[in-house]
Amino acid sequence: MDTWTEIEGKRIHDPLFLKQYQQKSEDSYMSASSTTTSSSSKQCNKVLGPVIVGAGPSGLAVAACLKEKGIPSLVIERSDCIASLWQHKTYDRLSLHLPKKFCELPLMPFPFDFPPYPSKKQFVLYLEAYAKKFGINPSFNRTVISAEHDKTLDQWRLHVIGPNKEKEEYTCRWLIVATGENAETVTPEIEGLTEFSGPVVHTSMYKSGQHFEGKKVLVVGCGNSGMEVCLDLCNHNAQPHIVVRDTVCSCKVSVH
Ligand SMILES: Cc1cc2nc3c(=O)[nH]c(=O)nc-3n(C[C@H](O)[C@H](O)[C@H](O)COP(=O)(O)OP(=O)(O)OC[C@H]3O[C@@H](n4cnc5c(N)ncnc54)[C@H](O)[C@@H]3O)c2cc1C
């Protein structure tokens, strides 16, 4: 549940970072597992059903499927809303990158009149309707900082920081981690970056190209977000350049 673990998890799949971070990763896993906390000033909550960490699309889907089977659950979310990635960490022009048939959640299709690639606003509206339909009311502004399993009691013990920075404890028999793969920003350590005097913006903080009109912008990375941000910058009369670490594959597509 430690946020660094997620970032390291991403880097573990990256051969260029693998060597550099392997040792660091091992060290941090060791120290995380040996952390001890005092429970004297904590509020303790026993949850009868499963606890789901994260109120993104995955967490909501799990809660709905459990509800459908008559199993209540508690969703704990560190942000102040459902789908916080979509609501707080995405650019204005975003629409689903995949056709809607691949993105809908179980038990409730997208509205029939949604376009093949719903906008971010439509997707959030759909998720809000989904949470309402299944009566999912996450416990917001609570960050799970660690989870440990007590084998003797067969219970998970979660340490949580509450809305006013207070320590809380939750115990439950089942724990579902739905904290996402894009929930943490990863900014690469680029030599010389600290000496660069202009703004450095991670895509999770980028909203629109209107702030970059007439400016030269270097976009690092050409995944979906990098490409789309470049297009957005062009549309707002900025002068973007894109830097790509690997080769770019292009293929010929014949249309019949
Ligand atoms: C630009 C962009 C475009 C995308 N387009 C598509 C698309 O078209 N189709 C598609 O299927 N996917 C797309 N994705 C992928 C995206 O990851 C998924 O849409 C979806 O958001 C994943 O849902 P999730 O619930 O697994 O994770 P998230 O949406 O990341 O939700 C995880 C939640 O867990 C919370 N959380 C994290 N850590 C803790 C903690 N310690 N304690 C409490 N809460 C915590 C976070 O605040 C967050 O709300 C896109 C992503 C991006 C960035």
Automatic annotation (TrEMBL):
Its EC number is 1.14.13.168. It comes from the Eukaryota. The keyword Hydrolase does not apply. It catalyses: indole-3-pyruvate + NADPH + O2 + H(+) = (indol-3-yl)acetate + CO2 + NADP(+) + H2O. Pfam families: Pyr_redox_3. Signal peptide: none annotated. The keyword Transcription does not apply. PANTHER family: FLAVIN-BINDING MONOOXYGENASE-LIKE PROTEIN (AFU_ORTHOLOGUE AFUA_4G09220), INDOLE-3-PYRUVATE MONOOXYGENASE YUCCA6. This is indole-3-pyruvate monooxygenase. It comes from Rhynchospora tenuis.
